[in-house]
Amino acid sequence: MYAAIRRYKFDKKNAQELDKKIHDIFVPLIEKAPGFISYYWLDTGHGEGASVSVFVDKAGADESTRIAADFVKNNLGSLKLSTPEITEGKIEAHSESAPAMLKGKDKAASTRPSAH
Where is the segment annotated Disordered (predicted)? Predict the structure, then answer.
């Protein structure tokens, strides 16, 4: 597995709009990328955020970075995000507990906190 981590800075007053656009527009795009495994967006609440995209192989991780760049350019221009700091590489260790994490949820990618 390979992952791409992208870190952004933005005006925290735009956080709710940014989070909604990522959930509503970007997540469906990234889910269609070849080799997609998972995607996570975290918002620090202080004008910084990071995404973690996990793919079967390096080609998928590379494609996720291209998809993300296009998404930012075409959908988030008015929010003035910083150029992302990108870290990409092979996942050498991982652990997960999907049944516990998803208890009561239909699909992890479709969940979003109701309040910021």
Answer: 91-116
| Pair type for strands 85-90 and 2-9 | antiparallel
pTM exceeds cut of 0.90: no
Confidence of residue 112 (pLDDT cuts 50, 70, 90): very low
Angle at 71 between CA 69 and CA 74, to 5 degrees: 105
Looking at domain 2-103, which of 2.40.50.140, 2.30.110.20, 1.20.1250.20, 3.30.70.100 is its CATH number?
3.30.70.100
HEC string of 50-78 equals EEEEEECCHHHHHHHHHHHHHHHHHHCHH
